Task: structure prediction
Amino acid sequence: MEQKQLETRKLILQNLSEKSGMKQIVYDNTFTTFNMIKEVLHEMCNDYNSAFSGIDKRVKLEYHDRGKFEAEIRVAGDILIFSMHSNVFQFDRDHNIWKLSYVKENLNTSYCGTINIYNFLRDSFKYNRLDDLGYLIGRIFINKDYHYFVEGKRQMGFLYNNFGSATIEKNSLINIIQSSILYTLEFDLLVPPYDVVKIVSVNQMNAKIENSKLQTGKRLGFKFNSDDVLE
Result:
């Protein structure tokens, strides 16, 4: 075998033993965290519903396990879907994470698994409105050391500074989920701008009559990232 081939072989073996092994640890940590989220969601539903005695049952919380990588909690007219991505990511070079000494000292700490939190309208699924919109309201990032941070809107915060010191645990997940629910409850459905809905095709109207499929979203017609009211 030529020298160049030997060197390439060595690099491949090194990557497999170090980088790929590290990514597998990140995946395992993220998957363990996601299963903890499922437990918290289930326990939270039981806890909150026990406090709803005598209250309209339509406002009770409902937990549904959607499979290996997804879980949902239904809160009144909203649904929060927690979705774990099966891959491990590194951040782009403009991300604030690169400013942290924790990451600068060991680049392997920058590889993270991701759990996304989406907000949908409950009626979107109830009436099979496939064109309705959902919003990403938060992302949880977990690395090889079980250190984490959260990106999100408003109550979710931008908790970069905790990365490297905060370890993901049940209590931190309860805080994240409660913040997600509170944000969702305060993130109201607005009437879309008149010019957005003033023209409707025959096909859209027929679809609406059949399945209520005219597109609906909490900020239809607006850019969610530019919603100054909720920053």
Remarks:
- The first helix runs from residue 3 to 50.
- The first strand starts at residue 61 and ends at 65.
- The CA atoms of residues 69 and 141 lie 15 Å apart.
- Confidence is low (pLDDT under 50) at residues 220-231.
